[in-house]
């Protein structure tokens, strides 16, 4: 018996899903034009509640980064164990005309990361649930 | 009404399995009363804080049920600074003559466990592994090093100094000097910061007696006056811990705002400061906080550290008691430890680690999640 793998996004409203080419979702304040991520119902810059959800750019520049060397305690939930844990990169990527978004990086070798380098957002299976459902999250990947 | 600190007490920081956090707070309170020659029943009010050792006002069960108004303060890493500011305002207003500020804590080993919901953050943020204060500090210093030319040697020198100072402080947790190379080769926690560059959760208690200036002679011949105290939170655009996103245009953080306010309040500038205790959650924080508090330009820290300018015998001694790196961080007590150390230094009671030249003015600074900062200026 075969069946297509079930997938679900890690959170609703975080990015467009399912979609041909998914995108992160932010909210732009209609009063002061500032963008928030994740999308929220009010503006952290000016207190306005007049906001519109929009897709964020898919490519940006690495603003800063680090490597997480040890496995975080709960609420970390990746399906890894102490034995299978792999260090991962975390960084902020400056998305032009929007804001800097924090995300995991697909690269975990600090020698291969440079502030200012081009990064693309990608969507990938982050972990599997007990019934085999793939939980989809986002990350940033250096542009080849 | 001017306000002075007339008594200080401390339970050593570190690990004390035999005592609860509350008991360490009571110990500090008794020491402070002894130092001021005062009785608990003399205290007209108290402000206190503890993040994980219960309500601070439970101290009355240890010290005595005198009926005093005891207010619990909970403001994250700025709890101590906020307590002191509340006490300062209570006396300055003329409402009270003398009272106590106290903070204590006892945390589990390992990194602080953060709960996304409690901080208004989405669950996924923690699930994917971004709910780590250590990552924030590493990313902030990575960008700062890139922008202003600070090196790994600079980071290691901050830790080296912390352990040297801790070794001279009988109340410190880490009391052994650690060499530059060992610091740099220590286990990497979050690049570029090794385990010797971070402070850890710990235990301890600190208490202070504050008093109106015209009554200090009842308690001490070495009063230290509070010339200013300020607390600020983050503005839109400042880069802070636990932020899923960050505005494109960065604005100065709460430390910069609080620092400007306190210097204005005291009618002083950074050049007037003889000794400073700056939040060193990790080595990079001390470096950035030197500039954010106005003690140097961005990037100058590299040669200041290389020249030993922030050592006990340097031009601007920083974290003379070993700071958070050598003392660990019991959240409720950490900010008050800084005040305690400045009072020790301004009284000339620093022993081996005494800043030479009779320091007259001391500065303290705390910074913590989710983007708050408290600063004070003390003068003898
Ligand atoms: Zn707005």
TrEMBL record, chain A:
One of its GO terms (molecular function) is DNA binding. PANTHER family: BLR3430 PROTEIN. It comes from Candidatus Litorirhabdus singularis. Keywords: DNA-binding. Residues 54-121 form the ChsH2 C-terminal OB-fold domain. InterPro entries: ChsH2_C (IPR002878), ChsH2_Znr (IPR022002), NA-bd_OB-fold (IPR012340), Thioester_dehydratase-like (IPR052513). The keyword Ribosomal protein does not apply. Residues 18-50 form the ChsH2 rubredoxin-like zinc ribbon domain. It comes from the Bacteria. This is DNA-binding protein.
TrEMBL record, chain B:
Residues 254-377 form the Thiolase C-terminal domain. Gene3D superfamilies: 3.40.47.10. InterPro entries: Thiolase, Thiolase-like, Thiolase_C_2. SUPFAM superfamilies: Thiolase-like (SSF53901). Transmembrane segments: none annotated. PANTHER family: ACETYL-COA C-ACETYLTRANSFERASE, NON-SPECIFIC LIPID-TRANSFER PROTEIN-LIKE 2. This is Thiolase family protein. It comes from Candidatus Litorirhabdus singularis.
């Amino acid at each position: 018996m075969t069946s297509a793998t079930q997938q679900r996004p890690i959170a609703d409203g975080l990015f467009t899903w399912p979609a041909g080419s998914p995108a992160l979702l932010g909210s732009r304040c209609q009063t002061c034009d500032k963008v928030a991520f994740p999308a929220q119902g009010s503006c952290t810059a000016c207190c306005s509640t007049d906001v519109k959800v929009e897709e964020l750019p898919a490519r940006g520049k690495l603003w800063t980064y680090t490597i997480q060397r040890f496995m975080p305690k709960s609420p970390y939930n990746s399906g890894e164990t102490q034995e299978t844990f792999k260090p991962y990169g975390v960084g902020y990527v400056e998305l032009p005309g929007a804001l800097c978004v924090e995300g995991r990086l697909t690269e975990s070798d600090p020698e291969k990361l440079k502030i200012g380098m081009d990064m693309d957002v990608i969507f990938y299976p982050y972990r599997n649930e007990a019934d085999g459902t793939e939980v989809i999250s986002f990350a940033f990947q250096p542009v080849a | 009404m001017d306000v002075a600190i007339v008594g200080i007490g401390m339970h050593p920081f570190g690990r004390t399995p035999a005592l609860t956090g509350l008991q360490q707070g009571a110990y500090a309170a008794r020491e402070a009363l002894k130092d001021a020659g005062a009785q608990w029943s003399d205290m007209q009010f108290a402000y206190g804080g503890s993040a994980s050792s219960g309500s601070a006002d439970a101290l009355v069960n240890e010290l005595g049920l005198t009926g005093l108004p005891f207010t619990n303060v909970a403001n994250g890493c700025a709890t101590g600074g906020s307590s002191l500011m509340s006490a300062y305002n209570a006396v300055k207003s003329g409402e009270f003559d003398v009272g106590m500020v106290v903070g204590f804590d006892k945390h589990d080993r390992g990194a602080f466990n953060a709960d996304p919901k409690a901080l208004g953050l989405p669950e996924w943020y923690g699930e994917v592994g971004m709910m780590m204060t250590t990552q924030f500090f590493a990313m902030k210093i990575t960008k700062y090093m890139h922008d202003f030319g600070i090196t790994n040697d600079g980071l290691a020198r901050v830790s080296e100094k912390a352990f040297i100072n801790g070794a001279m402080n009988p109340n410190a947790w880490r009391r052994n000097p650690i060499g530059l190379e060992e610091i740099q080769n220590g286990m990497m926690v979050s690049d570029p910061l090794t385990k010797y560059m971070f402070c850890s959760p710990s235990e301890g208690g600190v208490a202070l007696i504050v008093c109106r200036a015209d009554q200090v002679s009842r308690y001490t011949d070495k009063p230290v006056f509070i010339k200013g105290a300020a607390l600020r939170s983050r503005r839109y655009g400042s880069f802070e811990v636990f932020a899923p996103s960050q505005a494109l245009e960065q604005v100065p953080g709460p430390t910069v705002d609080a620092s400007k306010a306190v210097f204005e309040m005291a009618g002083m500038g950074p050049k007037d400061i003889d000794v400073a205790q700056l939040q060193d959650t990790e080595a990079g924080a001390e470096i950035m906080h030197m500039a954010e508090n106005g003690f140097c330009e961005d990037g100058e820290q590299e040669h200041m550290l290389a020249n030993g300018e922030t050592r006990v015998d340097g031009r601007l001694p920083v974290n003379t008691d070993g700071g958070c790196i050598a003392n660990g961080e019991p959240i409720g007590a950490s900010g008050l430890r800084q005040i305690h150390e400045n009072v020790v230094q301004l009284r000339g009671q620093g022993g081996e680690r005494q800043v030479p030249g009779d320091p007259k003015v001391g500065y303290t600074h705390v910074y913590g999640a989710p983007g708050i900062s408290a600063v004070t200026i003390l003068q003898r």
